[in-house]
Amino acid sequence: MEGIGTGSLVIVNCSNPREKMWGAVMQLDTSGVVIRGLDLEAVDDWLRQERSGGDALIGPSTFFIPMHRVVRIDLEESRGAVESIADRYRAACGRDVRDVLFDRDGSDE
Asked: Residue 105 above 80 pLDDT?
């Protein structure tokens, strides 16, 4: 089983306010977690935008979530018939989602 660390794709469940954030871990320590990603509610819209190649109206950002707000951090991975966001992105766009999150030039293009 893979651990959660820098570069892991995760879903962070937060409280006060209650929200879920998706993205790649940039830093994780006792003060909190730095994520490069999106609010989970915006991910499907972002995937549609990326697949269509349209104007970038939605995009990933870098944010810090203090540990007192973190309820749980889950690895974002495919399970059975349920595809992870990363796998859905690769199938739709032909690139690794980490390349896009970190604005790297993908080798698949």
From this structure: no
DSSP state of 40: G
Is residue 26 situated within a structural domain? yes
Residue 2 located in a structural domain: no
The domain total for the chain is: 1
| Per-position DSSP letters for 5-71, written without gaps between them | -TT-EEEEEETTTTEEEEEEEEEEETTEEEEEEEEGGGHHHHHHHHHHT----S--EEEEEEGGGEE
Does 58 have pLDDT greater than 70? Answer: yes
Please report whether residue 71 resides in a domain. Answer: yes
Range of the domain at 60: 9-101
* Cα(33)–Cα(109) distance, integer angstroms: 31
User: For residues 47 and 58, is the Cβ–Cβ distance under 8 A?
Assistant: no
Least confident of 12-21, 48-57, 73-82: 48-57
